[in-house]
């Protein structure tokens, strides 16, 4: 980065971080710095893994990863769709600060939504910070953070789909043909990256496309769930979706085996998560396969209810984090990964971010969160009406408030006692509700301007009496 870019970056980051000073996470470290692999599934629900209670989908390798590591039950994405979550991982900030309100699409659609065509490459990013500290940094798989080269964000190496400029994979037979075998391709390339950089500390994003629609599993994959076939003529949504998730699990297992064979397991932090809740059957490209599970929660992808933003989070670091542990206490988000991993990796200075340093989780300790979490989704939700949330939400402590900016649909839940968000306590606790709503609205008004769709935050239904008017 040249001097002009550095100064531009510093000014932009200071503007939205709310502070001009640096956070110093440097510490004396006698041990070798750990490798870090962050595996991100696409549209995988909180309840899609055996280790998160699913009784039907076979995920033996991820279950084994959980048995050797720790599961967080209160891990949140900072967006209810793809691009915002990915931006929060890279920047440590709530994505709306960067005017990333939804997924990146065409230039015209981005402009209509008040969004850029890419995250600004000059912003502070996790890979750039790790790279400056001596890490070899790589990104393999789905990008969806815009059209700029992924390598411009601090990666030594990048191979991408869904954007990423000149770092994108060649797809001579088209996108769908590529993505049908992409899980194997990404794993192959991840194994190659690990083998080439096993002597250096490395950071690798391995971001899969599966189980995002459109899903076209091979006959071989479908055999695993032949008992779920609807008829001789038709497969069912469960057979299609489950076979893809099991194959994803199989490829993760292959990667973990390579770490073991290379003697890297003990000094490699492996994290597995998802970018948002499961897709809904009303979305046309998922209408044959939307059998993902949000577990016991209300809401799916696009919703700010728990099912849209609470996802699996498994972390393994042998000797540092307990095996087979379940952390029901720590409330963590994708924005917390930057400060937490920087602390863990011994990275020196970085500018303040929205995320919180919860790195003690990586040492097996439960942590009480200090900072509130904020969300927004400005566009329609196509799910069942019970899943359609207001367009803003925040969580502070055990309390979660959802509301629209005009003050409609104010909902207050005690997530500890009511994780399904069924008992709205807004009227019973008016002072707390007012305090949280004021804070949430102030945050919302501080964001860059952008389109808010007319039906955003609505759960309205065409009741029979309205059809006769």
Automatic annotation (TrEMBL):
Its EC number is 3.1.6.1. It holds the Pfam family Sulfatase. Signal peptide: none annotated. InterPro entries: Alkaline_phosphatase_core_sf, Sulfatase, Sulfatase_CS, Sulfatase_N. Residues 34-347 form the Sulfatase N-terminal domain. Gene3D superfamilies: 3.30.1120.10, Alkaline Phosphatase, subunit A. Keywords: Calcium, Hydrolase, Metal-binding. GO terms for molecular function: arylsulfatase activity; metal ion binding. SUPFAM superfamilies: Alkaline phosphatase-like. The keyword Hydrolase applies. Belongs to the sulfatase family. This is Arylsulfatase. The lineage of its organism: Bacteria, Pseudomonadati, Planctomycetota, Phycisphaerae, Sedimentisphaerales.
